[in-house]
What we know:
By secondary structure, the chain is an alpha/beta fold. It is built from 12 helices and 5 strands. Helix content is 50%, strand content 11%. Strands 3-2-1-4-5 form a 5-stranded parallel β-sheet. Strand 4, helix 11 and strand 5 (177-180) form a beta-alpha-beta unit. The relative contact order is 0.18.
Amino acid sequence: MKPVKYLVFDLGNVVVDVEYPRFCRQAGIDEKSFHTFYESPFFRDLELGKKNREDFYSELENVTGFPRERRHYFDENIRYAFPLRLKTWGMIHFLKRYYPVFLLSNTNIIDFESIDRYIGLRETFHKVYLSYEQGYSKPDPETYRHAAAYLGIDPVQTLFFDDREDNISGAAEAGWQGELVTEESKLIRKIISVLGLNPDLFRG
């Protein structure tokens, strides 16, 4: 196994938590209807860039009853569904001084732009690969091959962090090294171990 030279992070449940129910309660959206919306083929098309912002708010109203007239509220506040994992965020800022760090996420324009305005995802990572911009999504192995070319990375020297086993398997099929993220502390320990960092730097 070649040494790790490139670090690639998923977004949801890796860099940020995903708490849609929290936002639904705040916005007055029925959680069950939003879950139906989230699991629908429409939402998958949104993540692949096949649906636009206007389509989103029209479908959201149809499924959940959330009025299109409140779209600006949704745009500004959906970020509260994604609380930041502070230790991981701090680690990424440290790592980017010494390693190329990238973001690879199945996401949509509304969620991503709301988070980005708040914490500056694009400016933090050296480059981002987003499903809605690229038209590819995990766990399709072709996504990782396309991402490797787009990001300019060597798959066998790349360590990818994701919270889903199928996404890790897709990455492995494309020749990437992968690490399943089940909790933040394990991610930190894995990075320290793989890169041979001094753990004392990250205590406290």
